[in-house]
Write a structure and sequence with these properties.
This protein has about 350 residues and is mainly alpha-helical. The protein is built from nine helices and four strands; from the N terminus they run αααβααβαβαβαα. Helix 6 packs parallel to helix 7.
Length: about 350
């Protein structure tokens, strides 16, 4: 009975905060998490004029692979060994380019995914409520009246190639999710997912993507000790399933020491997977693309030819994510060559 009352209370909190409220007070959350480790807020779709709420989560159930995934056998290509990489200095990540460098490793992951039956015209989103279509990329499935490319007409090709993925609500993206939540069967959609299946495994099984855009970190500030191992698990699980994980730094610095962005960049280098340095992209924006609370990203329409709109964080995020998706797509489709 006590557990039911707590879940009801958490549901009410989710409705009051969700993607429209401020960060929950640490003291108030302590009373809830003393009994329940963590619960993501339950809203999965938001209005573009709303704010994104950050809710602390700490869920550590082990990942469960999708039951229908094809086992890896002798037909799968053997990936080349990872090149040993030095540990980055604390501020090295800040100098990384906004648009990722796409390596030969990415093509190997893609080829494995095709052999496993992944859809070469599908990508997935992995993250919190900022990864839902109302905020992130959804306009590019809704037709040209919802966006303007301006001088970036070269992106029309990748928009057409991945039609159907932009406005799709991912089963691995939900309000309050952190790097642990995606490995917790409790938060899998019961209507779409199998028993004991994790949100990430469920998303990969049902969508069969070749690319995953990963936007995690803001909700991990309360449990920094689990962020790095869970991100490793995400990257390795993705690679095993032939899904190219495209990582991204974040605009905020909730952890106060920028350690999350450093960790994300270090892992991208170590595993030779693409990195969007979104932090770099917003440095020239008013307040670095953040609202007054220094947490939530500022919103404007996806009008890439509108200088005023491009002062906001969200159209910049959508633009650089499209450019990153385009860069990966051009390499895996042999339009351009991979880089060292």
């Amino acid at each position: 009975m006590r557990g039911k009352l707590i879940l009801i209370a958490l549901f009410a909190v989710g409705l009051l905060t969700g993607c429209n409220g401020a960060v929950l007070a640490e003291q108030g959350m302590a009373e809830i998490t003393s009994t329940v480790t963590a619960v993501p807020t339950l809203l999965t779709e938001i209005s573009p004029t709303a704010s994104i709420a950050i809710s602390p989560t700490s869920l550590t159930t082990e990942a469960v692979p999708a039951e229908n995934s094809t086992p890896q056998g002798d037909l799968l290509p053997t990936p080349s060994p990872l090149i040993p990489t030095p540990t980055l200095a604390p501020d090295d990540w800040k100098s990384f380019p906004v648009i990722p460098i796409v390596s030969e490793r990415v093509k190997e992951i893609y080829r494995q995914g095709i052999l496993l039956g992944n859809n070469p015209q599908a990508f997935s989103k992995v993250g919190d409520c900022g990864s839902t279509p109302a905020w992130f990329l959804g306009d590019f499935d809704r037709g040209p009246k919802y966006y303007r490319l301006g001088e970036h007409t070269e992106l029309e090709g990748v928009i057409q190639e991945f039609q159907g993925s932009f406005d799709r609500t991912s089963l691995a993206a939900k309000s309050g999710f952190n790097a642990s939540s995606i490995f917790t069967p409790l938060w899998a959609d019961p209507q779409s997912c199998q028993a004991n299946e994790t949100p990430l495994a469920c998303e990969y099984r049902t969508n069969r993507p070749v690319i995953a855009l990963v936007m995690l970190g803001s909700n991990d500030v309360w449990h920094l000790d689990t962020f790095e191992p869970r991100m490793r698990e995400l990257i390795e699980y993705s690679i095993e399933n032939g899904v190219i994980p495209v990582l991204s730094t974040k605009a905020d610095n909730l952890e106060k020491d920028e350690s999350i962005n450093q960790t994300i960049t270090q892992l991208a280098v170590e595993y030779q997977v693409p990195l969007i340095n979104y932090w770099q992209a917003v440095q020239g924006l008013p307040d670095q693309g953040l609202q007054e609370d220094a947490v939530h990203i500022t919103w404007a329409p996806n009008r890439f030819d509108d200088p005023q709109a491009m002062k906001a964080g969200w159209p910049v995020r959508n633009l650089v994510s499209l450019q990153a998706l385009d860069a990966v797509w051009r390499v895996i489709s042999d339009q351009t060559s991979p880089q060292p």
